[in-house]
Amino acid sequence: MRGVIGQETEMALRHPLRVALLDLLAGVDSVTANEAARRLGESSGACSFHLRQLERYGYVEPVAGAHGRARPWRLRPTAATPPDFGPLARELEDEGYHRWLARRGTAPERWQRDEAFSEVLHLTPAELATVAAEIRAVLAPYARRKPPRGSGPVGVVARVFPLLPETDA
């Protein structure tokens, strides 16, 4: 990413949790550090620290009129969106998945199951876009709701992309 985005942006997005927080805030009006921690599977202290760092770099701001420990944060309306922080988001996804694989035996029994799957489909470019939009539509109600009692953060990773032929290098 060096050279593609400015040094300030690179510093702001150096930590994958900051990227995850920006991605979370892009889909909700506001979020507290505690809410972010629940949704992202991180500690509230880490989320609070990184929200303050994102404020320092001009990406987020506290919601006006909110005070105290449970103050909500939102994206700054004037914040410039970085052109691509997808590689850092994928790094966080991969890190979380590897942590799951290493520690799932220590999770409470009701949480020791995952639903990893993949498919190879034959699609047109228009169908690829449709499938991606349909996946987003299925996830949207769950991403925007208040977490129900007994819920926990669950990573959902969907990558819909063309499989290019290997080339002899």
Brief descriptors of the model:
169 residues; mainly alpha; Arc Repressor Mutant, subunit A; two-stranded antiparallel ribbon; 6 helices; 4% strand; globular; disordered N terminus; WH-like_DNA-bd_sf; Putative ArsR family transcriptional regulator; DNA-binding transcription factor activity
Task: Give a structural overview.
- The protein is mainly α.
- It is built from 6 helices and 2 strands, in the order H-H-H-H-E-E-H-H.
- It has a two-stranded antiparallel sheet.
- The longest helix has 20 residues, at 125-144.
- InterPro entries: ArsR-like_HTH (IPR011991), HTH_ArsR_DNA-bd_dom (IPR001845), WH-like_DNA-bd_sf (IPR036388), WH_DNA-bd_sf (IPR036390).
- Residues 8-91 form the HTH arsR-type domain.
Low-confidence stretches: 1-5
Average pLDDT, rounded to a whole number, is 81
| Biggest β-sheet strands, sense, barrel | 2 strands, antiparallel
User: In CATH terms, what is the architecture of the domain at 7-112?
Assistant: Orthogonal Bundle
Q: What is the spatial order of strands in the main beta sheet?
A: 1-2
Give the helix/strand class: mainly alpha
